[in-house]
Amino acid sequence: MSNYIYGIHPVMEALSSGKKIEKVLLRQGFEGPQARALTTLLKEKEVPYSWVPAQKLNSMVNGAHQGVVAYISQVDYVSFEEMIENALNHKAAPLFMILDGVSDVRNLGAVARTAECAGFDGIIVPAKGTAAINDDAVKSSAGALLRIPVAKVANLKIPIYYLLESGFQMVAATEKGADYIYDINLKKPTAIVMGSEGRGISPSVLDLCDIQAKIPMAGAIGSLNVSVAAAVFMYEAVRQREGR
Fold first, then answer.
1. Do 110 and 15 lie in a common domain?
2. 27 C-beta neighbours (distance < 10 Å), count
3. Residues with pLDDT less than 50, the chain
4. Which DSSP letter does residue 68 get?
5. Paired sense of beta strands 49-52 and 123-126, if any
6. Domain boundary among 50, 72, 94
7. What pLDDT, on a 0 to 100 scale, did the predictor assign at position 135?
């Protein structure tokens, strides 16, 4: 893998200089003043980090990583305000995708690919709990992650409030929905919220959605892969808007 830097000082310098870091891995047991300074800086910059066994870092890096490896972002994130305002300046009824806890790289890439093909205006993801947008994600998206605007936020509720105040409807994809997706008017300015396959949409985010919709399910399994479900929702919006 080529999209990472390692070592305490290189990572701290990258953070301090504003380099876009996707996530930082710290060796379990990494302690002391340098560890405290680094974790403080990570919190200040709102960069997610996790503690991992030394073996994982050793398998990634041949050099002296000093217990610190940072993934460099493969995309240029935009602010959600800029994304939304730009879309409103160019379209009467923009479409956005919000991903709450989609942690699988291939699912993230597949959703981004469909969103770009369906003409969506951007994707919003939380900093924590989202798959790293790395080489694998970009490859899974067939390059769509380099084309569609992506905003990463510390708290999903903030852009949701902003979207609601800007006149958007928030459509949550959930099996608990009272209506089928085909019964929802998606010709309006709309943000579709997808959750993880395991936990679904977090309760605090679901409470902010004014519409909860589901996909008809006739089989015994009762659920779809999140990227497939997202495609069903997105292309229903396309179908309605093209009048088919």
1. no
2. 20
3. 1
4. E
5. unpaired
6. 72
7. 78
